[in-house]
Structure formats: C-alpha cells, structure tokens
Amino acid sequence: MTTSPDIAGDAVDDSSARLALALAPSPGPGGVRRNRVWALPAGPAGPGYARGVLRDALADLGVDRSAVSDARLMVSELATNAYQHAGDHGPHELWLYLADGPPGHEREVRCAIFDHLACDLPGYSWTSGDCGRGLSIVRELSEGRWGMVRTTSRLGPPSPGKAVWFTVPL
User: With respect to CATH, is domain 4-23+34-169 assigned 3.30.565.10?
Assistant: First the structure.
C-alpha cells in the first residue's frame, strides 16, 4: 500500500489526520468539476450507487472504457467493505477529485470511500476463501496506487473516520 496522496498531488503519510479535499464542488479547467463528494445510500444499495456515479464521472472525463470498468470494480469493492464492515458507522461518502499524477504520469482521478470507523485495514490475501479478496483486487487493478488514510468526513460536521482510495489515470 502506498502513502495517501493529497489534493495537490503530494504524498501524505498514512498517519495524517486529513486528506485534503474541498468540501464543495469547484469548477476546474474547461468547467470540469475538480472535486465531488456524494453521500452513499445506506445498506446494500451503496455499492451500486457508487458504481453508477463513478461510471458517469469517468465517462464525462473521457476515460478509456476498460479503465472505467476496472474503476467500477474497485469502487464496488470499497463501498461493499464499508457497508459490510462499517455499516453502523455511516453515512458513507464517495469522493472523486482530479489531481496531478506522480512524476512521469499525467492527470488522474482519485476516488475514495469514507466511513466513520477509523480502524486499520485487514491484511489481504488471494487464498482467504470466499471473502477478503477485495483489497487485493484494488491493489492489482490500481497497480499499487491505493491506500487508506485516517481523515474526517466532508459532508455535514467534520467527524473522524477513514478513507480508502485508489487512482484512475486520465
């Protein structure tokens, strides 16, 4: 797992208390909104809602269809984890923002699922039976550009929790 990037593209250590993200959507170049935050519906509808929002946002940015497909799987895994492991610690949030990629890369979309359960992530394994493979899928599809940061919510009064994130190159 890599360190958590902030909105400016700089790395922030996983022990950081905040992941920089504007509270309100702000237009970027060409009128594209740079930062967006959505409340996910409670219960099992959250992952499907996150997949649809992400699909539409990435399509608006012209992201390749195969990258959109991978991103939808990753956000589904993270939203499902939030529902299954932090269901009583909602509401959950979906964060999307545009940022500069690491050196040698162009722009990227950073996607995070926030929940109010500020705990460490479990280890991941391809051999752990029917459960526990989601973070391995995220790690593989994001080519290691994913992580977790303890931070605060973006909707409503700030309250502590964690955001699990991944990137999608533009």
Answer: yes
Q: How far apart are the first and last CA of the chain?
A: 21
Mapped onto helix, strand or coil, the DSSP state of residue 40 is: coil
Torsion of CA 25, 162, 8, 155, to 10 degrees: 20
What mean pLDDT comes out for the span 10-21? 30
Strands 146-152 and 4-5: unpaired
Distance in angstroms (rounded) separating the CA atoms of residues 141 and 143: 5
The token pair at 64 is 């390749």
pLDDT tens-digit series, residues 99-147: 887 787 778 899 999 998 877 665 544 455 555 678 899 999 999 999 9
Where in the chain are the domains? 4-23+34-169
Q: How many CB atoms lie within 10 A of CB 70?
A: 20
From the list 1, 21, 8, the residue with the least C-alpha distance to 146 is: 1
* Contact call for residues 5 and 103 (beta carbons, < 8 A): no
Kindly list the distances between the CA atom of residue 22 and the CA atoms of 97, 135, 152, 154, 157, in Å, as whole numbers in the listed order: 9, 26, 12, 8, 14
